[in-house]
Each structure stands twice: as C-alpha cells, then as structure tokens.
Amino acid sequence: MDQIFAPWRMEWISRQDWEEVSNECVFCEIYKKGKDRELGVIAENEYIYVVLNNYPYNPGHVMVIPKEHTGSYAELNEEVLFAHSRLKVRTLKALETAFSPHGFNTGLNLGKGSGGSINEHMHTHIVPRWEGDTNFMPILSDTKIVVEGMLETYRKLHDAFVQQDGAEDRGEEKSVWVGE
Ligand SMILES: [Zn+2]
C-alpha cells in the first residue's frame, strides 16, 4: 500500500490530562503551564518553543512554534523569524543526536486549505524519517502506549538539547533553555 505523507492531518489528540490546556488556543497555553515534561515542551528560547506532536507520524515528530499568536508567517518580525530558524536548526541537531534518522521532512501548514488541524497559530513540523519507515500510529493505536513512548522520546530529546553549546539545563521536568 502506498503511504501518503500527511503528518499535518492531526496534530492534537485529546488526552485526559491535557484537556485543561485546550480551552483556548492550545499553542498559546502549553508552554506556560509549568508542566513541560507532561506536555512535551522540550526546548525554548524567548520567542519560540519546541513541543512533541501529540499524534506523531514518527518517533521524534515535533513542532516548532512561535509564542506569539498568529496564523500568518508574514506577521512574524525579523527577530522572531531568526529565533524560529535558530531553534529549528537546534532541533534538527538534537533529533540527529537522539535518534540518528536518515532524513527529515519539515514544513508549515498555512491557512484553512492546508489540511492542518490548528490553523490559527502557525507552527513548523519536523518529522525524522528512516528509509522504509511507515506511519507507526496504526500499530500504536493504544493511547497509553503512545504516551509512554512520548515520555521516552522526551527524555532522549531533552538529553540531546542539554548537550548543545549554550543550552541551559533547568532539570528534567522543565524545557531546556536555548537562549541565543
Ligand atoms: Zn495561539
């Protein structure tokens, strides 16, 4: 069967312990909750943060998200765009350290016609790829298994960010601060 690559189709599955954050815009809320490990917030700088996708296409599927609420890429100022690019580069490096993938797909979903599930707050997907990989979600359809897998992914990626130059380890419960 041909695999259609469409990791943007679902970004946020409902999880009981995450319900409380999704009242308003989930991407405006999750990095402020002080529950980084539970919510999958792995690293951040002043303007941008990295969070695990709740519905990963592959292990290590993350989103790089501006803290500012906007659905428009063009509305981000230069400082924020630069911070976004820098954190994307750090995220690619951390994924390489943690998982040694063969490649990556990375991209934006902009606007209602793009097929993303959260259009009002822009975000970039980064998906590690392995030769011959397929979407593992049909196998891991049990939410409990997915959650356990994500905590392991969090630990590995968190460790990889901590190793980077200029990274500040604030403990395993908190995201890694990557200031510059
Ligand atoms: Zn928002």
Descriptive keywords:
globular, single chain, 7 strands, 180 residues, binds zinc ion, HIT family, subunit A, alpha+beta, 7-stranded mixed sheet
Q: What features would you describe in this structure?
A:
By secondary structure, the chain is an alpha+beta fold. The protein has 4 helices and 7 strands. A 7-stranded mixed beta sheet has the order 4-5-3-2-1-7-6. A hairpin with a 7-residue loop joins β6 (167-168) and β7 (176-178). α3 crosses α4. The longest helix has 22 residues, at 78-99. It is globular. The protein starts with 25 loop residues before the first helix and ends with a strand. Residues 1-5 and 137-141 have low confidence and may be disordered. The structure holds zinc ion. Zinc ion is lined by residues 25, 27-28, 69, 121.
Quaternary form: single chain
Tell me how many strands there are.
7
The profile of the biggest β sheet is: 7 strands, mixed
CATH topology: HIT family, subunit A
* Helical residues, percent: 25-40%
Low-confidence stretches: 1-5, 137-141
First and last CA, distance: 44 Å
Q: How much strand content do the residues show?
A: 15-25%
What class would the helix/strand composition place it in?
Answer: alpha+beta
Give the spatial strand order of the biggest sheet: 4-5-3-2-1-7-6
General shape = globular
User: What small molecules are bound in this structure?
Assistant: zinc ion
Strand-and-helix sequence, N→C?
HHEEEHEEHEE
